[in-house]
Write a structure and sequence with these properties.
- This protein has 230 residues and is an alpha/beta fold.
- The protein has nine helices and nine strands.
- Strands 4, 5, 6, 7 and 8 form a five-stranded parallel beta sheet that branches. Strands 3-2-1-9 form a four-stranded parallel beta sheet.
- α7 (141-152) runs parallel beside α8 (175-193).
């Protein structure tokens, strides 16, 4: 028997949405979030269409998705694939070999990434994940500078960025969200005073892009678009 329902994907709508987002947040760049198979809509087709539009930064949830995404682009060096969630110790070596951007959520995970990178004879790409109030994963703001300084001394680690995430940014007037933005900016200021800077800085996902426009302005230079793409 055949199913009575079908899902049709119009990639022209995806392309239109991406262009509108990119135009709205410029000069910030867009990281296309394609986790969970692009929310069940087909990550491979989405990735290829977005690449044709000039997108070179993609985010996924875990190493399996990162491996699949790397395969889509033939392991191209001009594409950045970032894992937003955690990585298990046994997954690190392969992710380092694929040049996947790994999250630093504590010093221990950073040390394991460094060790694998030294063994592979290459630099591991990482981004420092700050927990500014989500309470789920990342380095707490009160510990962040101390942990960052320790991580920066590890060999074969390229700390290319810093990012965080909001538990709720659906309302344009939300004191908790504004507090998280302030905490992240304070962290950036303090890290700069220590001589530690980042090439990629992002806190906004789709809801923040829509409701908190300051998250698409300096010091932020990237946003993460997931649901807004659809």
């Amino acid at each position: 028997m055949k199913r009575r329902s079908i899902l049709e994907i119009d990639l022209s709508k995806l392309e239109s949405n991406y262009r509108r987002i990119a135009s709205a947040v410029a000069p910030c760049k867009v990281i296309s979030v394609l986790k969970a198979d692009a929310y069940g809509l087909g990550a491979k087709a989405y990735a290829k269409a977005l690449y044709r539009l000039g997108c070179r930064d993609f985010a996924v949830a875990d190493p399996v998705e990162a491996q699949e995404m790397a395969g889509v682009f033939g392991y191209s060096k001009d594409v950045c694939i970032q894992i937003l969630s955690s990585v298990l110790p046994e997954e690190i070596a392969e992710m380092v070999s694929l040049d996947v951007v790994l999250p630093v959520v504590d010093f221990e995970s950073a040390a394991m990434i460094s060790s694998e990178a030294v063994s592979a004879g290459k630099n591991a790409r990482v981004q420092f994940k700050l927990d500014a109030g989500m309470g789920r994963l990342g380095v707490r703001t009160e510990d962040a500078i101390a942990v960052l300084k320790k991580v920066s001394r590890l060999p074969n680690i390229d700390i290319e960025g810093a990012f965080s995430h909001f538990p709720n940014a659906t309302k344009s007037e939300c004191g908790r969200t504004e507090e998280q933005i302030a905490k992240f900016k304070k962290f950036l200021s303090q890290s700069g005073e220590e001589g530690l800077t980042f090439r990629k800085i992002h806190i906004a996902a789709s809801d923040a892009i829509n409701n908190f426009p300051e998250t698409a302005t300096s010091p932020f230079n990237f946003v993460r678009a997931g649901l807004d793409l659809h």
